[in-house]
Structures are given as C-alpha cells and as structure tokens.
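Entry 12.
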Amino acid sequence: MQAIKTTGLTRLYRNGRGIRNVNLEVRQGEVFGFLGPNGAGKTTLIRTLLGFMHPQSGQAEMLGLDAVARSREVRQKVGYLPSDPALYDFLTGQQNIDFALAVRGIKNKNRVKALADRLEVDLKRRLKSLSRGNKQKVAIVTALAHDPELIILDEPTSGLDPLVQEIFGQLIREERARGKTIFMSSHVLSEVETLCDRVGVIRDGEIVTVDQVENLKKQRVKYVTAEFREAAPDLSEVQGVRNVAVEGRKVRFTFHGGIDPLIAELAKRSLVDLTLADPPLEEVFRAFYEGGGGGR
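Predicted 3D structure (tokens):
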C-alpha cells in the first residue's frame, strides 16, 4: 500500500491556476520531498489531499483511504503542519496542543513533553509572547503529538534558526526509522537534499519529475576543475563543456553529459589533477522553474 496515491487529481481556481492531472505515489516509510517555486501548486495539492478542498476530477488515497469519502478518518491518521499554522495567540502552547489532541479524542500526552524538550520550547507561555521561531516549534509539536502514521509538512523549517533546523532533521530521521511516512513541501532545497529519499517537482500545477535526489543531481551538470602541466588549453569546443574560466594552469567549467568522453579528452592534454563536484540542488532544479507561472 502506498501512503499517498493520486490519479489524475485536478483542482483549478477560476484564474486557471491550481493543480492539474497530478499522478503521484509516495511509498510508506519514506521521506518524500515536494518541491516547487511559490505559486507552483504545492499547498493546493496538500489541501486537496487532506479534504480541505474537493478535487474537480481524479482520485486521491491516503493510507489506503479515499481522501474525499473518508477524509475524517484520513485526518485522524495524519499529522499536518501548514505553512501558516492557525494557532490561538491567547492560549499557551500547552493549551493549543491540548485542544488539538482533545479534538482528536486523544488523551495520551506522553509525546508532548519529549518533543517540547527536544525543540527547547516553553509550552507555558502564551503564543502571542513567543517569537516566530518558537511559534513554529509549537506547531511542530502539535503536528506530531498524536504519533501520526503519515506526517505532512508544508514549509516546516520556516522561522527556525539553524540549530533548531538540525534538531528538526533528527526528529524526521527518527520518525522515518519508526516506519512513519513524511511528505514535506519545501522551497529550501538544502534541507530536501539532506532529509529526503525521493523528490517530486511541481511546476505550473503539474508534476514534472519524480526521482531519487541523487539521480536528479547526476542527470544534470557537473562542476569541473582541471589542472594541467602547462598552460590550460582551450576547452570551449569540447562537447558538453560550458562556462569556461581559465586561471593559469587551471580551468574551471560546467559539464553536461556522460563523464567518460570528457575524461578521455582531458587525458590527451597533460592533465595533472581533476576535481568533479555535484551542483547544489538550486542548480539542478533551475531548469524546471524556468517559465514560472502556476497556482499555489
């Protein structure tokens, strides 16, 4: 059984934006990154999966349950952190969490203190007195407090400082180790690279690719630095070589294509040293973002 499965899922707004014909499968027990620029359709898909919005066509299943017909059961099994958490500022963090658990009919609060201690957040203070980062911590605790089977996170590290982001990453890895499924929407590509097993990219409301993070990086471009025994040769005519910058005996460039022909070509030219590096994910996904548009 897939944790999330959609077939032809479509939900469009009057201006034509939204999501269209989304076919997506998220495996149980994986951390799945959902990437796209602002306005690409990430939040629309999440809201449709959770039954907050009804699809105009297509189907969605969450943990084997129909996301529309059995949306109430779905939400019982899901922990959801929205991009803009709707917490009550006049209540304390503990009261916000207690209310969320009461709505679900859950009396066991064992996880609350453990999570709050890990994130170092004071649940006795009213939300209105907390910083944005501490409010986000309370929202994270709220999403995880009932020990959900499926965790859906929409921009989860917004407002968190780097140290807390690392603690959050540890929590996500622990949840995966416990067999939980995490679906994480983000535009912070570095955290997706660190945490996720697979990633889906959405643009203009449509899924444009789903793959392992490492595979996507390898398909794109390599950053290359080559050092030669003598002055660096002109490599601008070599197939796949772009953005050449020569510095004495060194030459730096980006390379597209299979690496074997490049190695063979460089070996003809008194090569002394060679360094190849994967690009950051920002560079990998840049091509998917070109053209803009879409609907959040």
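Annotation: Residues 291-296 have pLDDT under 50 and may be disordered. The chain has ten helices and 14 strands.
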